[in-house]
Specification:
2 domains; binds zinc ion; 188 residues
Length: 188
């Protein structure tokens, strides 16, 4: 079962292990300019700034060189550019996606494998291998894909990931996307 971890808002130093994980994920390169050691000194930056309510969460932290970090100041940067060394990650995501579409297109597929595929897809969008999510949320996402197609839902997941939406809030976020989408369709 997913543990509902409360996010800390109080300012505290980011634990060294989290800093390491973030830098490793980002290939030890600044996510804004792509430079790395020894050309620049690397720091950890918040995508959604602390000023805007951003937290010290793996998904809200990125590697940034001192210069870029200083230049960005206290602004939020939800659309962080992807550097070339992360192309590999993008390819991994694409592979997951192809696999997922194959499963979804198989009408005879069981609920369980659908949920498994959804877990893969979320993992791809968030670039995590292992995580927990409550059954109800997974079922909701499966149904969402049946309703809107894997392309749209995956794009929504990616936007959630880009905006550092926590995994236990993902279903709610996707529900928001769904409402938005339905609203827009109604306007046309
Ligand atoms: Zn930089």
């Amino acid at each position: 079962m997913a543990k509902k971890k409360r996010l800390r808002v109080a300012r505290k130093a980011i634990p060294p292990s989290v800093r390491w994980d973030v830098m490793q994920r980002d290939g030890f390169k600044c996510r804004y300019c792509g430079r790395g050691c020894p050309d620049v000194e690397l720091t950890i930056d918040h995508i959604i700034s602390v000023n805007d309510g951003g937290v010290d969460d793996f998904f809200n932290l990125i590697t940034a060189c001192k210069e870029c970090n200083a230049g960005k100041g206290r602004k939020s940067a939800p659309d962080v550019p992807i550097q070339p060394d992360q192309v590999k990650e993008a390819e991994k995501i694409r592979d997951w996606y192809v696999e997922f579409c194959t499963v979804c297109n198989d009408v005879a597929v069981s609920q369980r494998s659908q949920r498994k595929a959804v877990i893969s897809l979320i993992g791809a969008a968030y670039n995590v291998d292992k995580f927990e999510m409550v059954q109800r949320d997974l079922t909701f996402i499966v149904n969402l894909i049946w309703e809107f197609g894997a392309d749209d839902v995956f794009a929504w997941m990616q936007s959630a990931s880009d905006r550092s939406v926590h995994l236990w809030k993902l279903a709610a976020y996707l529900n928001g996307c769904r409402k938005n989408h339905v609203g827009k369709a109604g306007d046309e």
